[in-house]
Amino acid sequence: MFTGIVEERGEVVAVRDLPDAARITVAGPLVTSDVKLGDSIAVNGVCLTVVEVAGGAFTADVMRETLVRSSLDEIAAGDPVNLERAAAVGTRFGGHIVQGHVDGTGVIRARRPSEHWDLVSIGLPAQLSRYLVEKGSITVDGVSLTVVDVADDEFSVSLIPETLRATTLGTKQPGDLVNLEVDVVAKYVERLVAPHLSDPRPASAHNGRTNQEAL
């Protein structure tokens, strides 16, 4: 599990294509300072398992499902990436619950700079918009952000100077792909209430009780 607070902006060192997969090596002196084989590191919001560590860089395998759902399918040597180690028990929880399981990709549509922040509009798959609410949380390329506005196929976020400085979102431009992970709590709530929303019986008749028996 992660919190969406990027620790380091790393750089892709190499990408090796494999059958139905890829193996990537990423330089990140901070996140590799205490990493062990089998540990998890989020790369642009994608949870990857460390399989090799050497010289301030780590290597991880990216399965086909991850390549299909995320922007890692287009990653190349020299690309900057956002890195975060898995959250440790007992540390401050600065962002929100982030699994590192990307739900899909979005496309930056516009960014409007102001004196103290940038307002960025991002298009998203229609099936994900129902999980977003104004002032709710979303993860964009591994960065925990607060939703400003949301529409059927678009949402906006404000990027403060620290986010612009410390993450790749500072240089993303209209047309660029970003990884999106919606709030997992929203997905669980939907799953739990869906059977009740589709039940044609009146609420007072649930659990085998009729309206008359409930009186």
Describe the protein.
The chain is globular. The longest helix is centred in the C-terminal third of the chain and has 14 residues. Helices cover 14% and strands 39% of the residues. The chain has 215 residues and is mainly beta. It folds into 2 domains: 78 residues, Elongation Factor Tu (Ef-tu), domain 3, CATH 2.40.30.20; 94 residues, Elongation Factor Tu (Ef-tu), domain 3. It is built from 4 helices and 12 strands, in the order E-E-E-E-E-H-E-E-E-E-E-E-H-E-H-H.
Structural class category: mainly beta
Order of helices and strands: EEEEEHEEEEEEHEHH
Q: With helices defined by DSSP (H or I, 4 residues minimum), what is the helix count?
A: 4
Low-confidence sequence ranges? 203-215
List the helices and strands and how they pair.
Blueprint: E1 8-18, E2 21-27, E3 40-43, E4 46-54, E5 57-63, H1 64-69, E6 80-85, E7 104-113, E8 118-123, E9 137-140, E10 143-150, E11 154-159, H2 161-166, E12 177-182, H3 184-197, H4 211-214
Antiparallel strand pairs: 1-2, 1-6, 2-5, 3-4, 3-6, 4-5, 7-8, 7-12, 8-11, 9-10, 9-12, 10-11
